[in-house]
TrEMBL record:
<protein>
    <recommendedName>
        <fullName>C2 domain-containing protein</fullName>
    </recommendedName>
</protein>
<dbReference type="InterPro" id="IPR000008">
    <property type="entry name" value="C2_dom"/>
</dbReference>
<dbReference type="InterPro" id="IPR035892">
    <property type="entry name" value="C2_domain_sf"/>
</dbReference>
<feature type="domain" description="C2">
    <location>
        <begin position="1"/>
        <end position="119"/>
    </location>
</feature>
Amino acid sequence: MVQTVLEIVVEGATGLESVHLIQGLLPYPVVSIRDSDGNFYYDSENKKAVDLNGGSNPVWRVLFEFNIDIVEAQQKQLHLIVRLESHRIVPCCPDKYVGEVRVPIEELVKDFGDADEKKSTTRPVLNKKGKARGSLTFTYKFGRTLDHPPAALPQPADGNPVAQIPQPANGNPVAQIPQRYNDGHPIVKAAVGGVTSGLVTSLSNLIRDSL
């Protein structure tokens, strides 16, 4: 499986809707990649620090990275989701949802094309009712490719590696003679020695008889 590094830099937002009654907006981005059923891909949600001073116009300039399979992301119609939450100063209360931006990965791939440099885009921030309440700007880049090595060959329980038989061009396996049966074995040496001795004796007798 080949994966590509998707770099996302959430620059900031403008004109966000206030969701609090007694405190100011303390927004932060939460970035993920999901399918239409809400399942996470490649990583869980990634959160970044709160902008304590930006209010409705926060500036973050924070980097998020995902190692994604572009083919899979397109086939499964995955989306990049940037959700904005606002931190509550009361510890017992959960943070409040501000809105989110959803962009199909396929659209990002198409718009990026063969570019080498990062691209910038600004999208509307939609609240729970689907209405635009401000805008979000982020840059993105499809960077280096990660080639995953093939899985290791299965090994037996006793720890001895599985024997690999080399194959010739015609596809017929080559017989491998174990070392203990080659000419280093004492029995083989004796047999070879006996044959050699017999040949030398016969040759000597033949030469002697021909003289």
